[in-house]
Design brief:
The chain is α+β, with helices and mostly antiparallel strands and 92 residues long. The chain contains two helices and six strands, in the order E-H-E-E-E-E-H-E.
């Protein structure tokens, strides 16, 4: 099993979830108002609107599903920005 974690600007969530759905990764969790520091400087979580806020989307899927989805995930990140972290996962 693989854990996929994607941090993106919240305005792109529907587009990211289309990638998940296309590859049958249908279980996920969304955490709103994620803050931190990176290439775009400090991203605060107390923005007045959701337009500029970041979110974290994570899911766990079979390795084969991730392999099929990687090309579309990379294309998404090149187009809209963000970070994707993939790690091994064990479900209990």
């Amino acid at each position: 099993m693989k854990k996929i974690e994607v941090i993106i600007e919240s305005v792109y969530i529907k587009r990211l979830l289309k990638v998940f759905k296309k590859h049958k990764v249908d279980g996920y969790t969304v955490i709103k108002d994620v803050e931190g520091y990176g290439g775009h400087g400090f991203q605060t979580a107390d923005d007045v609107s959701d337009v500029l806020s970041n979110i974290l989307v994570f899911s766990v899927c079979k390795k084969e599903l991730l392999e099929n989805m990687q090309k579309d995930l990379k294309k998404f990140l090149e187009t809209y920005g963000g970070k994707c972290i993939v790690s091994d996962a064990t479900l209990l």
